[in-house]
What we know:
The chain is an alpha/beta fold.
Amino acid sequence: MALLEVKNLGISFGGLRAVDNLNMSLEKGSLVGLIGPNGAGKTTAFNLLTGVYRPTDGTITLDGVSMVGKTPSEICKEGIARTFQNIRLFHKMSVKDNVKAALHNQTKYSLAESILHVGSYKAKEKEMDDNAMEILRVFDLDKYADTLASNLPYGKQRKLEIARALATKPKLLLLDEPAAGMNPNETAELMQTIELIREKFDITILLIEHDMKLVSGICEYLYVLNFGTELANGTPDVVLNDPKVITAYLGE
């Protein structure tokens, strides 16, 4: 059984069919790209997978469990985490606290313990500190642990958002244009980081990206959307040379 199965997925906003009859299958451990021109429905598809939108029709299953009708927080606990096209960090919190915020869905202590700092509070806070620093070291962000997130350079903010998503211990990580706004050196470093986290954290990755060098460099399989419908799917060498795909990006 594939980790993620999407069948006949669709959503309508009034008379607009934003995604129509989308089918995807992601095997555990795979690194897959979802590409297409601007306005093709890619981020809408991510919003459907993460419960931001409820599909008009179709099914989404993760490890055989239906995600349709679950809230974003419930879907996160089931094992789907994401980043956003526009960075959404807690800018007035430290780098470490941004990651710790994602760890709280795994750490439990009572309200009284948190207010009075008694019982298991201190031990569990230390455990979260240690876990957060371990994740930050993977991204070479540990030296910035006490820095405000807003003071990080753009490329490091992108990395921090991925680190925070990983802190939820996902089975499936959705990356929405992770290389957006990055220079070529930052993009090359990001490619290495994505491959590293897939191996280190044993997760499946689905990413939206317009940088075709990144897509062809790390993705094993591609799905192409155009006007909300699937235009093509296959390995990067086949898809990126498909005349229909080239036309969708560049026009006749």
